[in-house]
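Re: that chain you flagged

S.,

Sorry for the slow reply, it's been a week of failed gels. I finally had a moment to sit down with the sequence you sent. For the record, here it is as I used it:
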Amino acid sequence: QNARQAQRHWGEKVQEVRDDWNRRRTWQHDVHFSAQIAMCMRLHIKSQHECILRQLQMAAVDGIIVPSAFTDDDTRSFLGWTGFEVVSHHAAEFRRRIEGMFAAPPNDKTLNNTMRRAGLVPSHSWSDGWGGKACFTYDATKRASYG
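Prediction finished late last night. Pasting the structure tokens below so you have them in one place:
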């Protein structure tokens, strides 16, 4: 029952995030963004990870995070993202956007595990990462299967 509810939630949420991404014409802001979405589709990524990808892209466009170098290698990145840093004075907004993807307000452990499953982990503590004091970097050993 809970698994079905979660699957339904993420199916609805990914459509909502896609609509926002399209309305904002996010793909026009960086040549990598369309390729990242294509990679996402090609790999049949779960809805939660697609939501993270699109939220990262929109946050970058809005100046809330600063991306590290992008790559086309899906084995060395989260769908092209090698890392990012939260702009410290936008830390609360970034966290609010990620929390907003969930059906109910998530606790810290859930938020951290969500990023960990994507392979995006802070170079120091989680609070430093969320607060813009440490970069999130891709670590394949931390990433859960995209499947």
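What I noticed first: The chain has six helices and four strands.

Talk soon,
D.
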